[in-house]
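Dear support,

Our group has been running a series of protein-ligand predictions, and this particular one with flavin mononucleotide is the one our PI (initials K.S.) wants archived with full inputs and outputs. We had some confusion internally about which version of the output was final, so please treat the block below as the authoritative record. The input we submitted was:
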Amino acid sequence: MTVHDSAQKAFTEVVRDRRATPNFLSDPVPDADLEKILAAGLKAPSAYNLQPWRFVVVRDLANRMKLRVAALNQPKIEEAPVVLIACAGLAGWKEGDLEEVIALARANGYGDEVRYASWRRNVSSFFASEAGPIGGIAPDVAVWGNRHTMIAFTTMMWMAETLGYDTAPMEGFDEGKVKSAFSIPPEIRIVALLAIGRRKGPDKLFAGRFPMSRTVFAEKWGDAITLSSTS
Ligand SMILES: Cc1cc2nc3c(=O)[nH]c(=O)nc-3n(C[C@H](O)[C@H](O)[C@H](O)COP(=O)(O)O)c2cc1C
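Confirmed final output from the archive:
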């Protein structure tokens, strides 16, 4: 469609220049690019390859307007040609996903029956510990779902930016309203929204980040890290 179709930005440039885009033009995202964006996210890693993420792709204007209403009336949801609803399935592992993942591994020649048996045991005991804590800490399944879904989500964000698009991640939505507007089942959690398109107007200014010394520690919590490459 445009020069952006073939041009791919370097990842370092993408990381430096990405901003959460406040406003979008209505220019469409061609299917070929959307497919690259979605496929990139679906390659994300997940524990036992369980892939608990699910994405609803919202492109229809009437649906974007519905989503906007369920998401604090944020104008960018109606403006951007594509908005993804990133969801996490917390029970899929026991509803067929684990067996499907094992079948997939088998078809790809990965692992053997001993390994698959250990996957079954480990996954079941991980989730069983929700009721009876192991080591004093029960797994928080919402965190578990969020952990994986955000990797896929973020990979989609970076791929979109690499292809020359602008993006806006969002947590400002009413989960119940989004679920009922998009027929999302009760056992599914909504993790975040991602608008993808081309920004309208100049980019937002970079608001800065904490220095590394404030958020990265060496060896134990609180100890500053020193790297020979930084002052
Ligand atoms: C998970 C997540 C949720 C966010 N939710 C919203 C949101 O609902 N509305 C919004 O305008 N910005 C939202 N933002 C954008 C942040 O405000 C923005 O990333 C932050 O201010 C830093 O700006 P930058 O991304 O342009 O560097 C969200 C960002 C993330 C990562």
